[in-house]
C-alpha cells in the first residue's frame, strides 16, 4: 500500500512539473518560428504608426496546458521600420529606421497560445518603444535632423506644402487631404529643411479650396502614406520633394506616382522597377483580408511550419484568441473543451540559457 502511495505521489510531481512555467532557449526552432509569427500578428493587428521588425528574442517561457495546448511568453526586442502599418509590404521587406533619422526601438511582451491542433493564436501583446536621445544622435551626427513635435506649426505647414505639390502634379482621379502626421523632423545645416511623413484621405468631391475638403467614406481611415521635405530657411522655400504610396484600390487606370523630386515617373522608370503598384485590396478591411498584407508574401511566415514533431499553423480565420463560451452540458455529454490559463503578470525571470538574449538580426549603433 505504501508503494502505491509513493507511485501516485511521484506521478503527481511529474504531472505538476509538466504544467509549470519553464524557460526555453531563445534559439529554439519553435521559439524562432513563433516569434516571427507573433511579429506578423502584431503588425496586422495595429492600425496606426509604423510596422515593427523583430530584432531578437530576449527571453522565452512556455507554460504547458495539457489538452488545451501550450502558452508561450515571448519577450521580443523590436525596431521601428519606415513602412506604415497599412502598407501591403511585409515587415521583413521594410527598411529599418536608420540611426541618422533617430532610431526607435523597444520590446514587446507577447503571449501566444499554441493548440494541440497546431494553430497559434495571439492572446496579448504590450509594446514599449522609445526614440534614441537627441544627445546621442548629435554627438555622432551634428547635422542630422532632430524630431519635431507632430502638431507644431512647422510640421503642419510642411505637410500641407508637400501634399499640395503632389496634388498639383499627380494624375490620380481623386483629391487628397491631410489625415495624420506620423513623423516630423528638422535640421538647420548645411541647408535648413523640414521632413514630414503623414497619411492622407480622399475628398468626397474635388474642392475649390483645400479647407473645403470633406473626407470620403468617413470612418474608413487613410488611403495612402506620403513622405515629403521642404528645403529653405523660414518662409523661403528653395525646393519641395514628395512621394506618396496609395493603398486604396482604384477603378481608374493606374496612376503614376511622383518621384522624390516631384516629377511623374515615366514608363521607362516603371520598367526598371521603381513604380509602386497600387494594391488590390484594402489592408484594414477585416481580419481575414488583412492576412493578404503580411502572410501572402513568400518571405513572410508560411501558413504551416514543421518544428520537429510540432506543427505551427496560422488559423484559417482570426488569429486573435477569443475564449469559447461554455455550453450547458446535458447529462451524459462529453467533457467540455479545455480552456487555457494565462498568467496575469508577464514572466520576467532571467533565462538560464546562454542563448538568451538571442542573436540580433540587425546592426544598430
TrEMBL record:
Q: Which GO terms describe its cellular component?
A: extracellular space
Domain Cystatin fetuin-A-type as annotated: residue spans: 20-130
One Pfam family hit? Cystatin
**Keywords from the named record:** Disulfide bond, Glycoprotein, Repeat, Secreted, Signal
User: Where is this protein primarily located?
Assistant: secreted
Query: Where does this polypeptide localize?
Result: Secreted
**Which molecular-function annotations from GO does this UniProt entry contain?**
cysteine-type endopeptidase inhibitor activity
> Where is the segment annotated Disordered?
274-365
Enumerate composition-biased segments (Low complexity).
Answer: 274-294
Q: Which residues form the signal peptide?
A: 1-18
Name the SMART domains on file: CY (SM00043)
- Domain (Cystatin fetuin-B-type) spans 15-128
What is this protein identified as?
Uncharacterized protein
Question: Which organism's genome codes for this protein?
Answer: Electrophorus electricus (Electric eel)
Amino acid at each position: 500500500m505504501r508503494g502505491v502511495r509513493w507511485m501516485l505521489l511521484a506521478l503527481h510531481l511529474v504531472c505538476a512539473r509538466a504544467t509549470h512555467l519553464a524557460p526555453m532557449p531563445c534559439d529554439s526552432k519553435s521559439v524562432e518560428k513563433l516569434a516571427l509569427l507573433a511579429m506578423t500578428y502584431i503588425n496586422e493587428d495595429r492600425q496606426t504608426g509604423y510596422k515593427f521588425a523583430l530584432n531578437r528574442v530576449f527571453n522565452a517561457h512556455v507554460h504547458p496546458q495539457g489538452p488545451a495546448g501550450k502558452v508561450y511568453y515571448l519577450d521580443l526586442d523590436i525596431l521601428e521600420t519606415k513602412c506604415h502599418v497599412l502598407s501591403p509590404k511585409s515587415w521583413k521587406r521594410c527598411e529599418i529606421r536608420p540611426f541618422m533619422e533617430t532610431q526607435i526601438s523597444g520590446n514587446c511582451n507577447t503571449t501566444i497560445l499554441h493548440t494541440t491542433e497546431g494553430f497559434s493564436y495571439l492572446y496579448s501583446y504590450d509594446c514599449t518603444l522609445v526614440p534614441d536621445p537627441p544627445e546621442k544622435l548629435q554627438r555622432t551626427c551634428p547635422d542630422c535632423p532632430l524630431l519635431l513635435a507632430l502638431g507644431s506649426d512647422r510640421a503642419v505647414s510642411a505637410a500641407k506644402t508637400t501634399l499640395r505639390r503632389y496634388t498639383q502634379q499627380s494624375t490620380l482621379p481623386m483629391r487628397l487631404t491631410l489625415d495624420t502626421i506620423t513623423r516630423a523632423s528638422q535640421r538647420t545645416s548645411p541647408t535648413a529643411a523640414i521632413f514630414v511623413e503623414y497619411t492622407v484621405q480622399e475628398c468626397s468631391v474635388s474642392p475649390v479650396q483645400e479647407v473645403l475638403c470633406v473626407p470620403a467614406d468617413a470612418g474608413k481611415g487613410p488611403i495612402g502614406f506620403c513622405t515629403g521635405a521642404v528645403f529653405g530657411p523660414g518662409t523661403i522655400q528653395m525646393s519641395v520633394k514628395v512621394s506618396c504610396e496609395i493603398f486604396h484600390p482604384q477603378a481608374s487606370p493606374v496612376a503614376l506616382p511622383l518621384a522624390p523630386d516631384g516629377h511623374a515617373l515615366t514608363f521607362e522608370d516603371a520598367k526598371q522597377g521603381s513604380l509602386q503598384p497600387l494594391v488590390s485590396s484594402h489592408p484594414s478591411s477585416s481580419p481575414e483580408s488583412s492576412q493578404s498584407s503580411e502572410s501572402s508574401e513568400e518571405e513572410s511566415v508560411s501558413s504551416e511550419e514543421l518544428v520537429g514533431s510540432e506543427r505551427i499553423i496560422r488559423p484559417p480565420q482570426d488569429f486573435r484568441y477569443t475564449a469559447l463560451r461554455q455550453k450547458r452540458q446535458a447529462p451524459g455529454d462529453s467533457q467540455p473543451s479545455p480552456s487555457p490559463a494565462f498568467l496575469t503578470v508577464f514572466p520576467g525571470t532571467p533565462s538560464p540559457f546562454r542563448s538568451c538574449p538571442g542573436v540580433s538580426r540587425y546592426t544598430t549603433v
